[in-house]
Design goal:
With 256 residues, the chain is α/β, with parallel strands linked by helices. The protein has one domain: P-loop containing nucleotide triphosphate hydrolases (Rossmann fold, 3-Layer(aba) Sandwich). It is 38% helix and 17% strand. The chain has 10 helices and 8 strands. It has helices spanning 16-29, 46-49, 60-64, 99-112, 126-134, 146-161, 176-180, 187-194, 206-214, 224-236; strands at 3-8, 34-38, 74-75, 83-86, 115-119, 137-142, 166-174, 198-203. It has an 8-stranded mixed beta sheet, sandwiched between helices. Strand 6, helix 6 and strand 7 form a beta-alpha-beta unit. The longest helix has 16 residues, at 146-161. The structure holds adenosine-5'-triphosphate and magnesium ion (MG). Magnesium ion is lined by residues 16-17, 40, 45, 119. Adenosine-5'-triphosphate binds at residues 9, 12-18, 40, 122, 172-173, 202, 204-205, 208-209, 212, 225.
Amino acid sequence: MGRVIVIASGKGGVGKTTMTANLGIALTKQNKKTALLDMDMGLRNIDVMLGMENRVLDHLGDYFEGSLDWQEVLTTDERYPGLSVLAAAQNLDPSLVTEDSFARLIHELKENFDLILIDAPAGIGPFFRLAIGQADEGIVVAQPVVPSVRDADKVLHLMEEAGIRRRFILLNGLRYTLLRHGITMTPQDITEVLGTDLVGVVPEDVQAIIACNKGEPVVGTGCKSGRAIERIAGRMCGMAIPMPALNRRRGGLFHR
Ligand SMILES: Nc1ncnc2c1ncn2[C@@H]1O[C@H](COP(=O)(O)OP(=O)(O)OP(=O)(O)O)[C@@H](O)[C@H]1O
Ligand SMILES: [Mg+2]
């Protein structure tokens, strides 16, 4: 049975979709057959970020409306072997998305994939709650700023209440110059405040913005954010990859 991992944040714009899309590709490179489920309904994210929007013929709306089977709403791309995307619906009557139909979809995906990553919408609304209700594990993406960490705390509590026992923080957008100057929270500060372990730290990287605008992944390019995401995927697969010892004094370790 596949593992279902929900990627959420509370606060918007912290990099959930970037992490989900790139982790998906990194996990397929570890020979894990991976499905990416875009639950940010009304917006189209993952397929656009991977330059796959022209390949999307059918989407989750067609599944929830009952016109298509789950296999028929999978989008693949020869550039990303082993990866399937279930694209979000642009317009969908939320009342059609029942717990039952979502649970049936997740059951089928678990039977057919090693890993299912759910890109949750920002906030703690109905689609977020639906996603945490079916997930085995949770990754909360946070940036090293107080509002993001506060929202991450709320999301971690809701995941705990939903029965998700394996929960991790993914710290995204760390700026080591700010870290060195004591302006930003350290990864250690954040794990202490949240009482939750890190799955990894991704530095702020202009390449992530360039890649996103081009509809291309950062993994496999050798850039610092891509390498950090590859290390996270390795940890998710049980590999013992040490966490960078980032603190104010040694804030430059990402350069190694
Ligand atoms: N490590 C990073 N360094 C620099 N820019 C980043 C990094 N991670 C993400 N970004 C940029 O931040 C922006 C928001 O990212 P993304 O869309 O993944 O966030 P999100 O949490 O999914 O947003 P939303 O809550 O709206 O769904 C994008 O332009 C992306 O390229
Ligand atoms: Mg998003």
